[in-house]
Design a protein that fits this description.
Elements lengths: L4 H8 L7 H5 L4 E7 L6 H10 L3 E7 L2 H13 L7 E5 L3 H5 L22 H5 L10 E3 L1 E2 L3 E5 H6 L6 H7 L3 H13 L5 E3 L3 H9 L14 H17 L11 H8 L3 E6 L3 H8 L7 E5 L10 E4 L6 H11 L2 H11 L2 E2 L8 H4 L2 E2 L5 E2 L1 H9 L10 H17 L5 H18 L2 H4 L1
Parallel strand pairs: 1-2, 1-3, 7-8
Antiparallel strand pairs: 3-10, 4-10, 5-11, 6-8, 6-9, 12-13
């Protein structure tokens, strides 16, 4: 179990490596932790503090982008930094460019933990020189959530086995969506373009650059772009930008029949459409594997590095990830849990009593690492925004929007994101 690993590591360290405040003072060390909602569970903080009486945790949550931009600016401007910071996958390349300002967790036994995690999730927290700047928390996984009643109303099969077979490929997804639209139910096949873009591109070996750093936008992204444009032109989309008020209402109003859903999205669906219990079901996402979400816990260099490493090790342990899955639907990045009854037998009552663990474990185990670049998050938003523009407005040809998005992405790849260029 990872939970007890750090105790062994700490015991093997020389006395000079153990902060004197913990060994000789009644005053606890207070660790500042920066994150966003849903990353650090209060119940687990209580558990950590109970088992580490010399350490207290203070969490400061910000909105998702505000958190990452604030942390990056603090690194660049030599500002005040936390002892521990969560960094989401799409932002990690920006921070790996400043990896020298983070604690190398290999010095605190992290390399002994590598085999505990999905390899591609571990790799995301390691810089080009092999420094481990962060340990993986959860991973999102990806499934296709669909409304059984809306499929039935459209005259389509709605049992999981048949639907899974029909949408096993992206071509099959397009065919089924075309049939749904032809039924004229007054609802849309998908919520919008955001998750289609993310799910389709995420399955490719390369997104924006290849392993040699060569730009592959004109092949990899172009294929995904054309797929999403085709879905829009077939009238699949409800045109609802994700996490907007209209999108939230779309769940309750039965505005769309499918959405690409990471594990944590199940809670979002339930919160926004409590009246649709037992009407949703999950099947594997089209194609091979999928993921949306996951972060690394990191320790910016500072005064409390040993204590920060203890907290990170605890919060990313196998046992902690198991508890987070049960409490918050955060799917673990530790494969040894995937064969346990707690994952394979996990039943989601809202989704008709369906066992959800196996779908998500298979989706993340099928993925491999994708080469990334600083500005990955900005580039994602550029292309997703361009597709949304075409979906919602249709006032330009897709080719004009594509060229604008392509040039903006190339500028970031060649010159770096604006925050790191200041």
């Amino acid at each position: 179990m990872l939970l007890g690993v750090f105790a062994v590591i700490a015991a093997s360290c020389s006395q000079s490596n153990i902060p004197s405040a913990v060994a000789f003072s009644d005053e606890p060390i207070v660790l500042s932790v920066w994150a966003w909602d849903g990353v650090i569970a209060e119940s687990l903080i209580d558990e950590f503090e109970a088992t580490h009486p010399g350490i207290r945790i203070e969490v400061a949550n910000s909105s998702f982008d505000q958190h990452h931009n604030g942390l990056l600016n603090a690194l660049i401007d030599d500002g005040t930094l936390p002892d521990v910071a969560a960094i989401e996958r799409t932002y990690l390349p920006d921070f790996l460019a400043h990896s020298g300002q983070f604690v190398d967790l290999a010095g605190f036994g992290a390399l002994d933990l590598e085999s505990s995690y999905l390899q591609w999730r571990w790799d995301e927290g390691v810089d080009a020189e092999g420094r481990v700047i962060g340990l993986p928390t959860d991973t999102g996984g990806l499934a296709l959530a669909y409304r059984t009643d809306l499929f039935e109303a459209a005259g389509l099969p709605f049992d999981r086995e048949t639907v899974a077979e029909r949408v096993s490929t992206w071509d099959g997804f397009l065919e089924l969506g075309t049939e749904y639209v032809a039924a004229n139910t007054g609802t849309s096949f998908v919520d919008g373009v955001d998750t289609l873009y993310r799910a389709h591109l995420g399955q490719k070996a390369n997104a924006y650059v290849d392993g040699e750093g060569q730009v592959v936008i004109d092949t990899s992204v172009a294929e995904t772009w054309d797929f999403v444009i085709e879905a829009v032109e077939r009238d699949f989309s409800a045109g609802l930008p994700q996490f907007s008020a209209e999108w939230n209402d779309g769940f309750a109003n039965s505005s769309f029949a499918t959405i690409a859903a990471p594990s944590w999205m199940r809670g979002v669906i339930e919160a926004n459409a409590p009246g649709s219990e037992n009407l949703w079901s999950l099947v594997p996402v089209p194609g091979v594997g999928g993921n949306w979400g996951g972060s690394q816990l990191t320790a910016p260099a500072g005064d409390n590095e040993g204590e920060a490493a203890q907290f990170i090790t605890f919060m990313t342990s196998v046992d902690t990830q198991r508890k987070l899955f049960i409490e918050n639907s955060n799917f673990p990045s530790t494969p040894e849990l995937y064969e346990t009854d707690e994952i394979t037998g996990w039943v989601d009552d809202f989704f008709g009593g369906q066992r959800v663990g196996e779908i998500y474990s298979e989706s993340v185990e099928a993925l491999q690492s994708q080469p990334t670049v600083p500005g990955q998050r900005e580039i994602d938003l550029i292309f997703a925004s361009g597709l949304s523009q075409f979906d919602l407005l249709g006032d330009e040809t897709s080719e004009e929007i594509w060229q604008d998005a392509r040039l903006a992405a190339l500028d970031i790849i060649e010159n770096g994101p604006p925050t790191s260029a200041e």
